Amino acid sequence: MIYMYKLIFLLFFLILSKDGFSQHLTYNKGGTKATNYFEEIPYQDINGKIIVKVRINQVDYNFLFDTGAPTCISPKILNAIGIEKGKRDQVNDVNGKRVSSQAVIIKDIALGHLNFNDIPAVTGVPDFFRCWNVDGIIGSNLLRHSIIEMNSQKKTIVITDQIGKLQLGQRTGISLSLDTIQSYPVFNVQLSDKSTMPVHFDTGDNGLLSLSETSMEQFKKAKVYKSITKGYGANQIGAFGMEKNNQKFLLKFPVLDIDEIHLRNVFTVTGRGSGARMGSKILNYGIVTIDFINRRFYYKGDDKEIDLAEKQWPFQPAFSNNKMVVGIVWQEAGESVAPGEQIVEIDGISFKDVDLCNLLINKPILEGKEHATVTIKSKKGDQRKLKIEKKYF
Questions:
Q1: Considering the chain, what is the average pLDDT of its residues?
Q2: What DSSP line would sit under 20-61, residue for residue?
Q3: Same domain, 101 and 192
Q4: pLDDT of 302 over the 90 cut
Q5: Is the domain of 195 the same as that of 54?
């Protein structure tokens, strides 16, 4: 769902840059020595972020389960276990911002009773990970020799090398490919009888579908989406900061089929990154199985066809310098509000000073509402009240 507070659910999306990437440095190393294993582990769901327990050197830590990133550890773990530092690598976030990160090898890390050895990892996590008490990431490079099944109703993740122990029946799934650097999973979604679109599966993104402007242009001639409206502003925070204001498009895909499940009227806001990705929100509608071993992707649910048509708010907020500000402004809002103006209050609840952790942990206050009264503070310091309403654009 794209609604006023979607941006509060920050996207953490680390990818290893191929520009300047050492051909001798790969994160597709190490693994488990176990065979015929079947491990079911519970996870905590915090607004779509999937948190699991891991054990390193007999100490338990919370890690984000993120198929869109390489395995990663915090400086706290690095210092606690004295890992030998390796080469430095370039890491990008969802907005294309790049930093240099130290690469290390984790000698032993356990998920439940399943141990993984000699796993390459990136070091350093964003400061906002403290909000979830998270010290690292279980990335796709650690999972690449296993089969993963994610069940949001049970809030469990199965890790196994035995496909027969999963209740897939005679289903064949769809083809899956993995990138050569960190085994980032990619599959095709069906947009029409003749058009498919490759999407990365990124459980670190708690949205449904994210699409770059580049991909939007690539599929324009195929007429597989409708451009609903356009706007201007920023609505996305990556690992290394807020994106810059730019033009945005609200798109609707009438058809988006994944294996056995047919999604209808899927909305997305374009971004500045590259390609397309599906986030953890698809778990709301079915069980996902990623067979890294045999390169297959399965998606099954009780409902075969799901209509996701929804109303939209006239603008979306952003978090900046401990304040809530106006992020994207859709053209339907006219001149009633401008990007960067401060949001002081919503329906009597003050947002003069905003704690980021509260926003990340708690549910959005507009959830389930159709109307709201927002107090806006202009850049000159003047305040005004604005009544907003969700509408079909």
A1: 89
A2: T--TT--S---B----S-EEEEE-EEETTEEEEEEEETTEEE
A3: no
A4: no
A5: no
Q: Which CA distances in Å does 322 have to 125, 244, 355, 359?
A: 20, 17, 6, 11
Question: Residue 85: pLDDT above 80?
Answer: no
Q: Which residues make Cβ contacts (< 8 Å) with residue 218, sequence separation at least 6?
A: none
CB 210 within 8 A of CB 277: yes
Amino acid symbol at 197: M
pTM for the whole structure: 0.90
> CB within 8 A of 216, min separation 6: which ones?
225, 249, 251, 270
- Count of domains for the chain: 3
- Do 147 and 190 fall within a single domain? no
The answer to whether residues 30 and 154 belong to one domain is: yes
- Cα-based torsion angle of the residue sequence 236, 241, 246, 247 in order, rounded to the nearest 10 degrees: -20
The helix/strand/coil state of 143 is helix
Q: Which amino acid is at 33?
A: K
pLDDT at 23 over 50: no
> Does some domain include residue 2?
no
321 and 300 belong to one structural domain: no
At 304, is the pLDDT very low, low, confident or very high (cuts 50, 70, 90)? Answer: very high
131 is in which domain, residue-wise?
11-163
User: In sequence order, what are the residues at sequence separation of 6 or more whose Cβ sits closer than 8 angstroms to the Cβ of residue 211?
Assistant: 251, 268, 270, 271, 276
- Grouping H, G, I as helix, E, B as strand and the rest as coil, residue 282 is helix
